Amino acid sequence: MTAFFEKYFKLKENSTSVRQEAIAGFTTFMTMAYILIVNPLMLTQDGATGMDFGKVFTATALSAVVGTLVMAFLAKLPFALAPGMGLNAFFVFTVIIKMGQSYQFALTAVFLEGLIFLLLSFFNVREAIIKSIPINIKKAVSVGIGLFIAFIGLSNAGIVVNGATPLELGKLSAPAALLTLIGLLVTGILLCYKVKGALFISIIISTIIGIPMGLTQLPELSKIVSLPSIPYFFDFEWHNVLTGQMAVIVLTFLFVDIFDTVGTLVGVSAKAKMLDENGNVPRAKQALLADAIATTFGAITGTSTVTTYVESAAGVAEGGRTGLTSVFTALLFAVALFLSPLFIMIPAAATAPALIIVGLFMMEPVKEINLTDFTEGIPAFLTMIMMPLTYSISEGIIFGIVSYVLLKLAALRWKEIPLITFILGIAFIVYQAFLK
User: Fold this and answer.
1) Angstrom distances, CA of residue 433 to CA of 277, 427, 436
2) What's the structural domain count of the chain?
3) What is the pLDDT of residues 303-337, one digit of tens each?
4) CA separation (Å) from 283 to 75, 134, 261?
5) Which residue range(s) make up the domain with 199?
6) What is the rounded distance in angstroms from the CA atom of residue 279 to the CA atom of residue 136?
7) What digits encode the pLDDT tens for the residues 228-257?
8) Is 391 exposed, middle or buried, given 0-12, 13-18 or 19+ CB atoms closer than 10 A?
9) Which of 142, 211, 323, 395 has its CA 20 to 30 A from that of 5?
10) What's the whole-model pTM score?
11) Which residues, in sequence order, are CB contacts of 252 under 8 Å at separation 6+?
């Protein structure tokens, strides 16, 4: 088996090993395992949507397994996929609650989005979009994602909260904040001593420390292993496919997902130093195809849009360089189907330190960004700062691209704007003005 992995994923050529990829895969899984509980809770909303928690849990895990394995063997990249945060909120609060549609209607929209993505991926449209993003903005995307996931970690821990001002310091003596600070110290010490798997080890240690603090709820031994619920299967509303509301919702899903995925692929690839000399993501077509297949499969089984996860950066930071990292992550999601109580017990405060430290790791490309040319520096800065402040990767990219186009035009340097970048800039302006 080791020989197969070496030959298929070219481990030596990528300066990695089965052990290193396994640690990276474990780390990626541990930092995104929260989706196994958060996504079902989001999509069920205490019965408000009509969806079943057990069925959504199974769909969440299955879509993560399928999408991540396709990414592993088709694109050979160390990226994991699962139902996306933000997209699941739109699924519930906009489509179902605000617009009054059924969950079947929402799943139909996600399914159609997946099919459209498959076509766009086959015809290289999404890949062309990735290549059109200017190199400085690509590097800024990596930094922005780093700030974003560090902010997620601080927010999950209650260290940064919403208060009298938009953001303020939370109560550091609160159990979650205190555990995160302890985990951050443990992680820092392990990194200082160059311990392999530092992020993964810190998550395990923090989870154990969380037991006496009341944050880690140990499951009953007799209930650790359980059979998964049967998921939904093609639970769609075909008679609404050609309606105007369906068209608007599908376009919104398409827009947000494509740029969240593009941003993640570019950002994590930049951190892993996988971008080629032109700043392009290797095997981008295959990676985007994996994303489209996962979204389509997820809709069939009953969950919202599946996308590439920024938490993949945690595995990359631990040395993950090939699709073998994704294989290990997918296997853990498969195990989670039967050991859900064991994985769900990991508190958010235990994974928060890993997210914060990964944010630091992803800041590195900022050193290579041209900040002296303001037609390059301002778009890069807006890309970086708007991601955490709007809680959206795609919004950061929108601000970056639009400001890039406008500043280049204002400076009479329109020849430097790639055609697709110009088209994207105009499309983003129209989207913000009329469709959002």
Assistant:
1) 36, 10, 7
2) 1
3) 998 988 878 888 988 889 899 999 999 999 999 99
4) 6, 18, 14
5) 2-435
6) 9
7) 889 999 999 998 888 878 887 887 777 677
8) middle
9) 142
10) 0.74
11) 90, 435
